[in-house]
């Protein structure tokens, strides 16, 4: 069908000498009909079926070559989210930034870019090139992922002018940024919904008692905390100046990853934000002692995050005292909070580098199956396990046992059992 639609929208070439083209022209002439012209709405509907991402880039490029009409309609979708990698980056820069000075030569294609993902770039370009790209695409840019290299302080000025951003990912940035610099960069991004901190070490202010608070975007919903969190904790969670906590009001998704974190900082943050959270992630925490200061241990997560729907946690942070009391060794060892909490999805990630718990304290799928039998976490429906990490050999049997019990729980609650059970995921590369 698409081939027919493409052929209908083409204007026959006057220089074509192929037999097929001549036969088609004769057939059209003999029938006395003009070539069918597709309305723009039909072409836009066709383009809407193309999936987002790299796979559609070649197809969209081919659509731009069909005719002027197809080019005018497909070019915006082609440049909305360009797939950038080593070989094509220089050509993209030359197209979007044909001159160093935008006043000398400007490209209208720069205004079409909505997503600028530079995460797959290694050492292509320079810091000046990154700043120039941000400057040219600022009017329409909504999603930005910064590169690991070729990012510097000069990029912050250009980034701060991208006021329409909805998602800002700085998690790959290796350049050290101060908390104040990051705050000044995002303070005008009123539409920002997702923010990921850089994982690099931060430049700290000389006077710890004159730290500036973060200018949080008013609509921020998802926050990933990485790198050095000293300033975040002492400026906004528990300010050293004795002021009130300054944290985003609409946060529902929170992640701690690639960071040094202790139990005091963790619990203080959850005490402020936990009641609003529906998603929490703990991954690749490089601290040497992740302590839980409360008697409930890891169940602090359940106590402070009563509305949590999804928990993603590294396997060596998933201790049995998330659900069970370590002080009771009988059939009544399930913690009261675990009997009522409505956690629905549990994602068990590969180990972090904490090494703070002994193996006997860690929870496995056999423990989870026992918890389901005791009606702990009554809303739990899926347990996703990252593959390629060390686990006890009996997990294969325990996985099957837990899988069946989760499906049985779904059937007992008149839910679709196909949506419940144990799943496996490829090891994430973050």
Description:
Mean pLDDT is 81; it is low at 1-30 and 292-296. Helix 8 links the parallel strand 2 and strand 3. This protein has helices spanning 2-9, 19-31, 40-48, 57-64, 68-80, 86-96, 127-137, 154-160, 179-186, 230-237, 263-273, 300-304, 336-340, 365-373, 395-412; strands at residues 115-117, 143-145, 167-169, 194-196, 222-227, 253-259, 279-285, 310-314, 345-349, 382-386, 421-425. The protein has 15 helices and eleven strands. The relative contact order is 0.05. The chain starts with a helix and ends in a 5-residue tail after the last strand. Among the domains are: 50-78, no CATH class; 254-430, Leucine-rich repeat, LRR (right-handed beta-alpha superhelix) (Alpha-Beta Horseshoe). The protein is an alpha/beta fold. Pfam families: F-box-like.
CATH architecture of one domain: Alpha-Beta Horseshoe
Spatial strand order of the main sheet: 1-2-3-4-5-6-7-8-9-10-11
Strand content of the residues, in percent?
Answer: 5-15%
Largest sheet: 11 strands, parallel
How much helix, percentage-wise, in residues? 25-40%
- The coarse overall form would be globular
- CA-atom Rg in angstroms: 27 Å
Parts with pLDDT < 50 across at least 5 consecutive residues: 1-30, 292-296
| Number of DSSP-assigned strands | 11
Number of helices: 15
CATH class of one domain, named Alpha Beta
Alpha-carbon distance between the two ends: 41 Å
Estimate the mean pLDDT confidence: 81
- Examine the coordinates and then state which fold CATH places here, giving the name of the CATH topology of one domain: Leucine-rich repeat, LRR (right-handed beta-alpha superhelix)
Give the SSE order as H and E letters.
Answer: HHHHHHEHEHEHEEHEHEHEHEHEHE
- Derived from helix and strand composition plus strand pairing, the structural class reads alpha/beta
Pfam families: F-box-like
InterPro entries: F-box-like_dom_sf, F-box_dom, LRR_dom_sf
Protein name: F-box domain-containing protein
